[in-house]
Amino acid sequence: MLLRGEVSCSDALAAQHHQFASGNQKFHTAITTWPVSLDGYNENSLGRLSGIALAHKDIFNTSGRIPGLGHDEGQAVPGTPIAVVLKRLASHGAANIAALTMAEYACGATGYNPNFESCINPLHPDAAVGGSSSGSAVAVAGQMVYASLGTDTVGSVRIPAATCGLHGLKTTHGLIPLDGVYPLAPSLDSVGLLTRNAFDAEQVLHACVLPGQLRETSHSPFRVKAWIPETGLHRGIERALSDFSNRQSCIERLGTMPEHAVLTQLAEIVLHVEAARTHRAALLDCTASAGVETVALAGLVIPAQWYEAALAIRPHHLRTFVQKHLEKHDILMMPALPEPIPDASKVTTGDAAFDVKKLLGLHRYMGFINYLGLPSLVVPIALDARGLPVSVQLVARPFHELRLLNMAQKIALPMREQAGFLHSLSI
Amino acid sequence: MSPANRLTLPADTQLATWQSAALAVLGARKIGATLPEAQRLARTLVRLQPGAALALDHPLSESFEEALQMLSHD
């Protein structure tokens, strides 16, 4: 409608701003909102994202403001340059209308944050919202914005996407610049996208990268390899993934992936050491938050040579993994979460129902992908007995994000349809 | 194989173990220990033991960014 001139950019943005404000009253996801500025807008020269309002995790610098990082409401600091990725989105016409809540300092697998009102999962009020990009997931799932940027260090885009029935894309390490993005563990950090469908993700992704950075992909049937763990997976999830892999005619199926444990261990070493460097002063002053302590304390005592070795061996592991799983196959499919989406009470520390295994389970299939630096996309493929999504995680070679999105267009469950039209599962 | 091409991983990097060590660091810092002293104490307390060695027959000179670019081609 924008392209056909049936709606002006200003009208479209005003409507989205209103919708965002309405959703925020229900789901509590905004830290700060900004009025839409139409300065410089040229209705006759539309960019890829002209007339589109976006809002992002409060971890990106904006012009003259440093983000609050889930700790506070941010701070006006004149002269602060906007994060490079936000500048690119703006250059394509996108408006930035809000900074969104997150786990404090990106240290958390859920949306729990004692500093702000808890955000609500739009799919079910009792269901957990994954983190740390929790506000991004809620804003997109709640129809408040079309897309939102987050960051993913050990699953912080993919976990919230999986809990809210969204597409969550962790990009290849280094594809999107991290300038102006607050770090957690720089070797693992990637900017990621949350959207309701693959088309929206592709539009935003193209605006975030430079021409030629993404590998083009064929539209022929993809050769898919499935890893469906024989142990540790909820029976209903296992059944959903098995059924899905059969429908996709996966040409190879693994029951075990021995390297997963080692790669996860290496990812943990890198995470702990780099997070400890990021938060060193607060850790030593004993002023770090509980979330930061959980992630970063261990890094104070991990021997430096283990960290250096974990980084030195990384290219070898990447090459071995790609040769083993992505040479004869285009996509590796695996679980996103090991169990159905938990209730928030089960993954909130301090709650009487808290179950540490459920909290740690959220990360299980995430961190090793960050260590390898590969692109990964979480996509909903089925519904469980509660009507909540079951997602898979798709992994491809470096810079093959478009292949993941192309596959997602073929397989993703349309989340707002009636369950009767969908492939529904009883978990 | 040169020693540089061997990586010895910890036997146990479970979060709880590392957190115990880290908490020991903080405790030591609170009573005035220097950071190196606190780190030595923590490692002693949790008895960090080396685990299985991973043998590498691959040179470690390649950068991660180079590997990502090279492996992007089908």
Q: H/E order of the elements of chain B?
A: EHHEH
Number of H- or I-type helical stretches of chain A: 14
List the quaternary state of the chains.
heterodimer
Provide the residue-averaged pLDDT of chain A.
Answer: 90
Strand line-up in the sheet with most strands of chain A: 6-8-7-12-13-11-9-10
Helical segment count of chain B: 3
> Low-confidence parts of chain B lasting 5 or more residues at pLDDT below 50?
1-9, 48-59
The fourth-level CATH homologous superfamily of the largest domain in chain A is Amidase signature (AS) domain
Biggest beta sheet summary of chain B: 2 strands, antiparallel
Percentage beta strand of chain B? 5-15%
- Helicity level of chain A: 25-40%
CATH topology of the largest domain in chain A: Amidase signature (AS) enzymes
Domain count of chain A: the total is 2
The largest beta-sheet of chain B arranges its strands as 1-2
- Major beta-sheet overview of chain A: 8 strands, mixed
What is the typical, i.e. mean, pLDDT of chain B?
A: 61
Got a strand count of chain A? 13
The gist of it:
The complex is a heterodimer of chains A (427) and B (74). Chain A has helices spanning 9-27, 84-91, 134-141, 158-163, 198-208, 235-247, 259-278, 280-285, 290-296, 304-312, 314-325, 356-361, 367-372, 401-411, and strands spanning 30-33, 53-57, 65-66, 75-76, 95-100, 147-152, 167-170, 190-195, 224-227, 252-254, 331-335, 376-383, 389-395.
Would you mind describing this structure in some detail?
Chain A is 33% helix and 15% strand. Chain A has 427 residues and is α+β, with helices and mostly antiparallel strands. In chain A, the strands form three sheets. Chain A has an eight-stranded mixed beta sheet with strand order 6-8-7-12-13-11-9-10, sandwiched between helices. Residues 417-427 of chain A have low confidence and may be disordered. Chain B has one domain (3-70). Chain B is built from three helices and two strands. Chain B starts with 5 loop residues before the first strand and ends with a helix. In chain B, helix 1 (15-30) packs across helix 2 (35-46). The A-B interface holds A 172-174, 187, 215, 262, 265-266, 268-269, 272, 283-284, 286, 293-294, 297-303, 306, 309-316, 318-319, 322, 360, 373, 397-400 and B 7-10, 13, 15, 18-19, 21-26, 29-30, 35, 39, 42-43, 48, 54, 56, 58, 60, 62-69, 71-74.
